[in-house]
Amino acid sequence: MADIFFTIALFLILLSTGGFIVYLARQHEKIFSLSCLTLFTGFIFHTLFLAIRYYDLGVAPVTSLKSSLSFFAWCITGVYLVFHMRFRLRVLGSFVAPLTAVLMIISSVIPGVDAGVNPILRSVWFLIHVVTIFIGNGIFAITFISAVMYLIQEGQIKNKTLGSFYKRLPSLETLDSINHHSVIYGFPFLTVGMITGAIYAQNALGSYWRWDPKEVWTLITWLGYAMLLHERLAVGWRGRRAALMSILCFSMLIFTFLAGSIWLSSYHTFRNLGAGAGL
Amino acid sequence: MTTIIDIGMNHLTAPVELRECFANDEGKTGAALSFMRGSKLIKECIFISTCNRVEALFTAEQPEEARESVISMFASLGGIAHGDFMSNLYVFEDMDAVTHIFRVASSLDSMVVGEPQILGQIKEAYHRASVTEKTTGVILNRLMHRAFHTAKRVRTETGISESAVSVSYAAVELAKKIFYGLEGRTVLLIGAGEMAELAARHLLGQGVNALLVANRSFDRAVQVADLFHGKAILFEEIGHYMIETDIVITSTGAKEYVITQDMVRKLTRERRSRPLFFIDIAVPRDVDPAINRLANTYVYDIDDLLAVVQENSAQRRDEATKAERIVQEEVIRFERWMKTLDIVPTITALKDSTEALRKSEMERSLPALGRMTDVQLKAVEALTVSLADKIINDPILALKGQAGRAGRDAYLDIARKLFNLDMDNQKRS
Question: Does the CB of B311 have a partner CB in chain A at under 8 Å?
């Protein structure tokens, strides 16, 4: 049952990605509305899938790379839909949808079964930890995308080669403002995620902080975002510099996510989240 | 035979750096005119120098030699070696030169086709040549008046000048891609000039709420500021006011950069790195192009804006075709006039016109004379013929006497006017 929902969600997300790309080329408003609607429907199916998984497993479905990529994609889509309601920036969809589509495809092709989970993960703190961290990541994905869009648009304006993206992309200030706001919104989620993680670790493992590589890298990433936020708010950083910094931070975040979850870490790896492992 | 020659360069053939060598300098225009007046090879001349073009328009009997001497004048005027700009020059002769000047005056050859400024600049250049330096004569006077007439027709009969595509429009579009919106922004206008004021007007139309005007002459700044309900500031205050400014439009005649990189860099912290957009309409440039490399700062000069404008100029082609047709019509009319501006055609025209006059008068008077014998009729006929011949005999002799002389064109012109020979161009009352 759950797999059918996932397949439907994947199909709808791919469909909407195609639509968003056509929209980017043709700029028909109708294509955009349809793509957005398709994405939203896909999001609902995806949500149903995750709900069923949660019900089955009893924990947030992030215990393998396969499931966490899918959860990551769900967060990005959710954040995009919220941002869309707030900023009404159509072209953002044309960048977000391909990203979620790629994550979904990877998630669907890599093998992995959440056969069972370590019972220790059945804690409300773990749930909050995972959900906030992932929402934070989803918001930072928007930060990253807006930074890339900013660099494309600024490159065109600075180099005076006003290509086809010039008309399609919004103004630099708009992109910078999305970048700015998404860091402001994303940072508390990341922070709360880290704190709840520490509380959970204290409850489950007996210590708040264990210098696990993933913890350390997350802290470095957090410091990166903290610095970006500080420079933005206190010094008045903006534009290209802030965009580059947020791209760097997001790269660290992805590195932390992949490397920390797959091979670097001791107890954050998926192997250790599975049923057979003991923490 | 007099040849009309036009030698020049424009925004298409020469880069800003080269045009700057001849740009908008009163002294250089004067030097060019007095050089050409001094040359035996050149009969009449006009020197046009604007942001986007330099043109020497002259007439000569020996086109080859005159051309060479004007090209070397260009070299000494700009302080550049001969070979360095030969590829940037164009040379038009006779009707090609006429077509070119008509097109230039009609703003068809402008960077921004249809921009209104060029006609005023050409009128100014003509005034300078004809009134101040007295270097124009019959041919160029007529040529220029026909050019103004053509420009007026193009402006009123085609939509070229109304079209939204213009440098200022492109600048506004750019501003919209830099800023979230233009409402509540502050624009600083440095220097004056039609193009800059047009850009300012466009920006104000987009909701920009504050306009600051700086000018070397404070009076002028106040004048422009009043026009737009803006605020005049002193030239020295530019640095201070730039802290609150979002868009700077520059259009001064200064030779050095008015806005230097250092000046902008120092403001970065105080401005909290807010985006700053420079629109530099001046030639020579007012804003150091290196400023474009500073963070969140964008500099577009007039050549950059040209590149932007070209994108959407497609829809103007139809109007341009119409304008080109008007130019052609006027060139043909001018060519017809030029052809008559010679001794033989003028004498023929004089004879024809007198003969036509004599005939019509004869026809009118004959009924009043009552019945006449053939002999009497012949006598009256002979009387009128000889009277007419005698009347025009001296003028014809005077014209013939002018062959090969310097004053010939003037004589021809006056003769044609006195005897109303250019029916085509006169009011047909």
Answer: yes
